[in-house]
Amino acid sequence: MASTDKVVVHNPMGYPPKVTHKAMAPRLDTLDGKTIYLVDCRFDDSDIFLKQLQAWFADNLPGVNTVFKQINSVYTQDDPVTWQEIKARGDAAIVGVGH
Amino acid sequence: MTIDHKYQVPAVAVHTDIFERATKSVSRVNGMPRMRQTYVPQPIMGKTPEQLRAYIEGPDMVTGRPFMQEVIEGLTVPFNQDDLKNASFVRTTPRLCEPDTEENLYRLFEENHWTDYLPIVLPTEERVEEMLQHTSHSPDETVGHMAPTHFREHWEYIVEQVAVNAVMAGAKPEYFPVILAMAASGTSARGSTSSSAAAMSIINGPIRHELGMNPGIGAMGPYNHANATIGRAWGLLSTNLQGGSTPGLTYLGSQGNAYSFTNITIPENEERSPWEPFHVQHGFKASESTVSLFSGGHATQFTLGLRENFWQQHVRNLLRGMDPQSAPVFVLDPITANQFIDRGGFDTKEKLIDWVYENATLPAAEYWDYQLIQNYIYPRATFGEEPFASKLKAPPDQHIPMFEKRNIHVVVVGGETNGYWRMINGRYAKTVSIDEWR
Known about the structure:
Number of domains of chain B: 3
Number of helices of chain A: 2
Strand order of the largest sheet of chain A: 3-2-4
Radius of gyration of chain A: 22 Å
Helix content of chain B: 25-40%
Distance between the termini of chain A: 50 Å
Strand content of chain A: 15-25%
Order of helices and strands of chain A: EEHEHE
Shape of chain A: elongated
Number of strands of chain B: 13
Number of strands of chain A: 4
Oligomer: heterodimer
């Protein structure tokens, strides 16, 4: 075959699923007076980071109530118990640290 | 994503900056392209509270704006039209590439990250058609679904697409049922973990001889066409059928793994093994052909034989050198398999596994201080899951088992030029029938 001849080959990729939009929660008007859950995904010292974040809020935004909360198991598992608690008692969440 | 979408609680995610590309991709393919994400420096692990406070008071590593400003605005600034753009989309995979010269196609495949950067066999229609003759299954039959991690979307693939990747690996058409069985398992050989896992397979049954596989001298090395290309095909099909294995995006292994080129492919030396074959242990008949799949391959311990006086101490030393989060597969030359019977009376694999479980121990304080145990076992222990919860109650100096017994495995392979043997860490996924894919 000459080097300029063209050949036809298959594409090796599989079939991706359709991606459907997922609506996010509306944002808050203000953080003042609100309860923010600081959710520890329990990976590689995330707890130390989030406790420093909690300290930052206490120093800079004392009107914000923060709750440090570790997930119930490993980050690979869903945790509806924790999400339901946050839904019931919190106004927002900061989840970390993914790494 | 779950708490923001499903529970409608406004949320901000914090990541380290090295994962920017991957995290934005994950949110996009999960239908939330404008999920609020913030980035601090890598690493978090091992940093002091003061250093982490400095991260918080410093800039977001992606936007350059103050990190806390990103956090607060992520929770309070309303959405705009940009947040809804392109959130839903359809992607397709064309069956064929545009016709081109071979040189350009090799470049295309490499630039698209469709290869392992070694030369491939171009998957022409003729070659793929020849591969398809070696299965009774239709080319358009769905084989399975696969993703590089559990939080990415699962891609679907058909028999023909598996054949394409088998051709690329240089596999002969008669190997195709083995490769289809691997694909049908849904177990990726290109799992994305920052730990850089590889993959391992154990092949049992008559198929080993039908295909001329080598369970003897050099079995795990580059000395047999079937061993090499079947393992390579698993890697390529994983890369392409799961939607990619691209560094920084769909592959985050920090160092990579040299086993990944052909993966560890082990046709068990059933004929020279003193024990039951691996697949018979898992409920199959000896006359059936199967492939058993593992992920891991981070660690390899190695020694020669079992000495008469200190063999137990030597094996314990090797076990304690493993990370306790991933149990060992004992990969034994037949000489060493027989030595385990001579030294310890282990006339079954199960008896050897019992002994390994009882002797692979660490003081509790040391065990719980491993980072991977902290990440993956400690959380489960704190919420009462056994056997971890009981281990957590042990006094610091008490020796506790490193591994769960059910996660310890034994396979026999090698050509008896000497009694060298290994432990390779591996997480067993499943055993799949090859015969179903003939």
